[in-house]
Queue: 2 jobs
Job 1
Amino acid sequence: MTTRNRQFLLAQRPVGLPSRETFSYVESVVGEPGPGQVLVRNLYLSLDPAMRGWMNDAKSYIPPVGLGEVMRALGVGQVVASNHPDFAVGEHVNGALGVQDYFLGAPKGFYKVDPRRAPLPLYLSALGMTGMTAYFALLDVGAPKAGETVVISAAAGAVGSIAGQIAKLKGCRVVGIAGGAEKCALLVDELGFDAAIDYKNEDLHAGLKRTCPKGVDVFFDNVGGDILDAVLTRINFRARVVICGAISQYNNKQAVKGPANYLTLLVNSARMEGMVVMTYAPRFAEAAQDMAAWLAAGQLKSKEDVIEGLQTFPETLLKLFNGGNSGKLIIKVD
Ligand code: NDP
């Protein structure tokens, strides 16, 4: 019997927003694993803003996806054939599986996950790269202290929603910036944020004044651009600005918009620092332990936005850039 593998390949490097034409859809026949290889049936794929950066032919923390290659995506799946001593048939793995039905190759960087301990999508959200990003960007780079004010942009998204809840667990006042009344209600009513600013319907400067009367000690920025600039005007002495992401800039056709207000860093003896989650790989187990304990105790809620169907990939990806997702955006491979 031959098994069909549906795949999305990177067909062209997008200028601006990606579209269906950015990818070519092909169907191939799945082969057998060679020495040191595994065959994995993909079950859930993680959709990440970083995918946009991987499409650019530019130097970054990871090489770009080559034209004609399967679009890179993290995911969880089940081993269906193995020629590798560390992975047995039936085991579930987390790794760079790609936007396709089956991964065939060396399981470089793959690790096992246990569906009996947590539902599989959770290994892409709180217990996966998303959770690790929120945990280390907040606690290591932002270093919030109890009583401080923490502001988070893209707060109703995957990373932001978790970072905000961790900041609450650490005793901070937490303010989320998100687009739309529904997302703001989610932050305050369900996730325990102290306040939210709907940047699409409220003047951001007024919103910051309203919600951060004592200024901002930690800004966890996922968005960049105008939002970064606005928050910079409200930072306190020795504030920490965490550059986790800059999603407002990823599809720019012009140059990235830098922070015009950066001199507030100078006058407040503040710092702005970037982070790449993989730097913290040696400490992932430590973070996963904390996250699992918080989840088990009901102190942390992991929100997943699961869309059914590999075929939807190009349109589903766009949700990250138009605010269509709430929580961690995941494709369930049908
Ligand atoms: P999200 O789930 O937060 O999805 C993206 C959200 O960003 C959207 O839902 C939208 O929410 C908001 N957004 C999109 N475009 C804009 C815009 N122009 N202006 C304002 N808000 C916008 O994605 P993730 O949680 O996966 O990622 C969040 C950030 O973290 C990204 O910047 C990503 O690159 C970064 N990241 C960094 C890592 C690292 O190692 N440094 C690792 C993982 C992620 P809304 O409706 O509120 O506008």
Job 2
Amino acid sequence: MTAAEAISETGRDFIRDIIAADIASGRHRKIITRFPPEPNGYLHIGHAKSICLNFGIAQEFGGQCNLRFDDTNPTKEEQEYIDAIMADVHWLGFDWGEHLYYASDYFEQLYAWAEHLIRDGLAYVDDQSQDEMRANRGTLTAPGRNSPFRDRSVEENLDLFRRMRAGEFPSGARVLRARIDMASGNINMRDPVLYRILHASHPRTGAAWCIYPSYDFAHGQSDAIEGVTHSICTLEFEDHRPLYDWFLEHLPVPSRPHQYEFARLNLSYTVLSKRVLTELVRGGYVKGWDDPRMPTLAGLRRRGVPPEALREFVRRIGVAKANSVVDVAMFEHAIREVLNAAAMRRMAVLRPLRVVIENYPEGQIEELEAVNHPDDPDAGTRRVRFGRELYIERDDFMENPPKKFFRLSPGKEVRLRYAYFITCREVVKDAAGEVVALRCTYDPATRGGNAPDGRKVQGTIHWVSAADAVTAEVRLYNQLFTKPDPDVGNFAADINPNSLEVVIDAKLEPALAADNSLSPVQFERLGYFARDKDSAPGRPVFNRTVGLRDTWGKVQGAAAVRKPDEDGDIK
Ligand code: ATP
Ligand code: MG
């Protein structure tokens, strides 16, 4: 399904259509949604889709969106994740106001409802081992078998359940199950587990509990407690909906939410499973949850992706009912678009090659005017210093160039952006034959980059004055995985060994040394870059957020057509 198909005729997606109809029919006056992360990892770009959907709907329909931590599994959940999730939702541009909730706040109520089901003969304590339960659950084609403990009396069930709560039994010894139908065609309805014994301390309730509710038993009732009208989740919960409804039907809940499912975001070259992301961090494949190669919001932020780009990307992919994989190039396209409009332009040289302008007076420095943003005159201009020694990009010189190479080569003339025409006169090599410098001449009549005699050059290259340049570390990122659909079962085999390339000797315009407001910034002809938190005084570190073009697509052959850029330069 394409993004366009996912947006309905009304210009909305199917969930927004449902909500608009519910308002029109008077079924709901105030719309309440929720974003329900489990605090067992950092948020990723898939969560951003869910956040934009839930908070976006609340904004558009004048409703409310709760942030609710689904903290029912204390062995995997940590305060660090709770804090990171809150910071990420705010960064993305959304606010839950006073509506911050935790499923653990409802533990007492959920427990009371479990006793309610027991009293109604709708739940029982099961002593089967996990293996026995699994064996008796049946399969997609074969029905399950009733537990030998299924017909315990209400009194016995209540007694055992209270003793489970009191801590009389070891972890895993017993569970509380709903008494529904072991022959149901929907395995979720085959007497699902409501409570398990887990002697584990919880980040919020500490040692108060040693039994914890299952996701299914907690989720719908938490929605009901909060008055959630539309409980929006991903498609894998579609088969849980009958169970979601069953609890609401059989319990005296204060409201009646409805669950709607949409297709989760899958992105090519990207893994969005929290289990795998956790292993990437713990296994040292990346340098933490905020490593700029991670698809986490913390990683994307550090990489320099603006929240506007995430929101715009999510808007464009739409909300569909069928799973699909979105090309990561589409995400990068949204990033480029936002940064193209917002980022100031500066000059930086990643792999410097020294250029000496032979006929430029020794010791002379002049200041030339450079525009800050080609499409935004209000962004103004700045002065860049020009001197006898400069750095240019190694790639912008070739000693024996092919025919269509319009940049610098022996005897050729090019334009130095905002400065002069220069001509390469001599190539200086070291003992190993390596090019170490170029000796050039400049034409003083071409100041500002145009020749009074109307003579043209085919290439324009960027440069940095050697006397002023600031040396920086620049980190270039490529896809973390080599395949569009990495094998989540054996992800290590698909990790790209070249996902990070560190340039330690980049040369930047001096303004980039200190000014944090210049981030993210476009390094002209190279891409968009953001200052990294590893920067030290006098030693900035920049991350490449995204290149100017889809270089990955080029490698894949997708962008085989190579057109000259604005300067007539084939790259
Ligand atoms: P994982 O499956 O990797 O463990 P999760 O989906 O269980 O992640 P949660 O913290 O439970 O992670 O997710 C919170 C919310 O975000 C849920 O409503 C879930 O449906 C939604 N969500 C998670 N991943 C995606 C995704 N890739 N696209 C859209 N929504 C997602
Ligand atoms: Mg989940």
